[in-house]
Design goal:
- This protein is an all-alpha fold and 238 residues long.
- The chain has nine helices and no strands.
- The protein has helices at 2-25, 29-37, 39-50, 56-73, 80-103, 107-137, 147-173, 176-200, 205-230.
- The radius of gyration is 18 Å and the shape is globular.
- The relative contact order is 0.10.
Length: 238
């Protein structure tokens, strides 16, 4: 059992990530969706098998994102129900992660120490959200004040909130674990922005490859964060 926990799951994750990258590089779309679809569920298994103290909101992030990824595997006909379900699950996943980050910080201390920084982040995020929404509205299929628009708006909002809170959490705690989570979040959020650009502006091979690399790097850093908090076995890395 210990061999499975310490070597089996990490090896399976590494293999799936490698298959995902290779399938993107060589345009094997079916293999790309399948391999990616089962990476996050393995994170859930890893978390619940190894974590001694489980956090409801972090577990929610992993579970909601896993549901989105698994259902996306079966979306071969691009049905609207799959689109709505996957996006709602992704939004719930990011907001669960945001709540997890918030519960680890004192709001009064945060505002006292980083008041100006929070203001700058708010202004930057407002502008980025405006740009992302304009990218989405550039698609004739998405009209303002429609369910699709609201869904894309909350999706973009959630990734920006998570990125900002991950940065603030690192500054607040100043720990290597929080640095891993911030860098992992940064990679995943930038991969999502590239994905938005490929969907609504220009879909190119290079964007797909960059998206896959950033997404996989983000998963690797999140894996490092998870394992560093589970037990002392992995702390030799730090």
């Amino acid at each position: 059992m210990n061999q499975l926990k310490y070597y089996g799951l990490p090896t399976a994750l590494a293999l799936l990530a490698s298959v995902y990258i290779m399938s993107v590089l060589f345009n094997f779309e079916t293999l790309e969706f399948i391999s990616r679809g089962f990476i996050f569920p393995l994170f859930v298994v890893l978390y619940f098998i190894q974590a001694k103290e489980k956090n409801t909101f972090f577990a929610g992030f992993l579970i909601f994102y896993s549901l989105s990824e698994i259902v996306n595997v079966f979306d071969s006909r691009n049905l609207p129900v799959y689109y709505y379900f996957c996006n709602v699950m992704s939004v719930l996943a990011y907001f669960s992660l945001a709540i997890y980050l918030l519960t680890r910080m004192s709001l009064s201390v945060l505002l006292q120490r980083f008041k100006l920084f929070v203001l700058v982040l708010f202004i930057c995020n407002t502008y980025i959200l405006y740009v992302l929404n304009n990218m989405v509205l550039a698609d004739a299929a998405v009209q303002i004040w429609t369910p699709n628009f609201y869904l894309e708006f909350f999706y973009n909002l959630s990734i920006l909130v998570v990125l900002s809170l991950a940065l603030l959490s690192y500054l607040y705690h100043d720990s290597k674990e929080d640095l891993l989570l911030f860098l992992g979040t940064l990679c995943i959020v930038f991969s999502e922005m590239i994905h938005v650009a490929s969907l609504y502006i220009l879909d190119t091979y290079m964007l797909s490859v960059l998206y896959a690399i950033l997404f996989t790097a983000g998963l690797g850093l999140v894996y490092g964060y998870i394992t560093s908090k589970m037990n002392t076995y992995y702390r030799i890395l730090f």
